[in-house]
Specification:
alpha/beta; 3 helices; Transcription Regulator spoIIAA
């Protein structure tokens, strides 16, 4: 296995952690060519592990991933394509308060609706929760 359970891998301002055998947590930013290349390698290794373990569903918590540039989105597109061909699903845990999550992951889901699930967390409503 490429990543060990509980191991945090830092690549510049990106932190990657395998939280469970079926969950990856991403935090920080992904915007430099070096970080993107290392992230792609990690995802390729992880894909190999997922297929070897015959995992049918995998979660990716991106709630703490504050920024990725447009080039980095390609790494997610490639992973989704590999997952679709291998027959496992990816559930992305996103935050409703992060604009790029709402915009980018809805597009990624539209590319492979049978492979991608979006689990969006909503920020707590202050002041009693009554909408105006």
């Amino acid at each position: 296995m490429g990543m060990k359970l509980g191991e945090k891998v830092a690549v510049e301002s990106l932190e990657v952690e395998l939280k469970a055998p079926t969950e990856l947590k991403l935090a920080g930013t992904l915007s430099t060519p070096t970080a993107q290349a290392e992230f792609r390698r990690l995802l390729q290794d992880l894909h190999t592990d997922i297929v070897s373990a015959k995992t049918t569903a995998f979660a990716v918590d991106v709630q703490a991933l504050s920024f990725v540039n447009s080039s980095a989105i390609r790494a997610f597109v490639d992973w989704i394509s590999r997952a679709a061909h291998a027959g496992y699903t990816l559930a992305f845990k996103t935050s409703a308060s992060v604009t790029w999550h709402r915009l980018s992951f809805s597009v990624l889901k539209s590319l492979a609706p049978a492979t991608v699930e979006i689990i969006e967390s909503r920020p707590a409503v202050a002041g009693g929760g009554h909408p105006s």
